[in-house]
Amino acid sequence: MGQAKVSCDEVIALLTDYLEDALPAEGHRDVAGHLDVCPGCSAWLTQVLATIAALGCLREGVIPPPVLAALRESFAGSRQGRPNAAGAGGGCRGRG
Ligand SMILES: [Zn+2]
């Protein structure tokens, strides 16, 4: 039931397509479903959207690759750096 169809890494990889509505309906739903249950990814999405809004990129509907790469890097770094205070029992595991 609560089994995630996509991993965090996949969500991150697909996020640009997700935001640009370039995913097939099923993929879009999988990403949305993951974001709904994964605090880490939803927090990251919030950060991405805030960054995009700050840069005014939303008008273009495109996220510049350097922006995405930087965000992705910071997210990966925060994941590796510390287990995240409230990481226990989360619905989000990198692999498994
Ligand atoms: Zn996640």
Q: What is the structure about, briefly put?
A:
The protein contains four helices and no strands. Zinc ion binds next to helix 1 and helix 3.
How is this fold's topology laid out?
Layout: H1 8-19, H2 25-37, H3 39-55, H4 65-81
Zinc ion is lined by residues 8, 11, 34, 38, 40-41, 92.
Characterize the structure shown.
The structure is a single chain. With 96 residues, the chain is mainly α. The protein has four helices and no strands. It has helices spanning 8-19, 25-37, 39-55, 65-81. The relative contact order is 0.18. Bound molecules: zinc ion (ZN). Zinc ion (ZN) binds next to α1 and α3.
Largest sheet features: none
Question: What is the H/E string?
Answer: HHHH
Which spans of ≥5 residues are poorly predicted at pLDDT below 50?
82-96
Share of β-strand residues: under 5%
N-C termini distance = 16 Å
- Count of individual beta strands: 0
Tally of contiguous helical segments: 4
Helix coverage percent: 55-70%
Number of domains: 1
Q: Name the ligand types.
A: zinc ion
Indicate the overall shape. Answer: globular
Rg result: 13 Å
- Please tell me the overall pLDDT: 72
- Helix and strand content put the structural class at mainly alpha
Protein name: Anti-sigma factor family protein
Keywords: Transcription, Transcription regulation
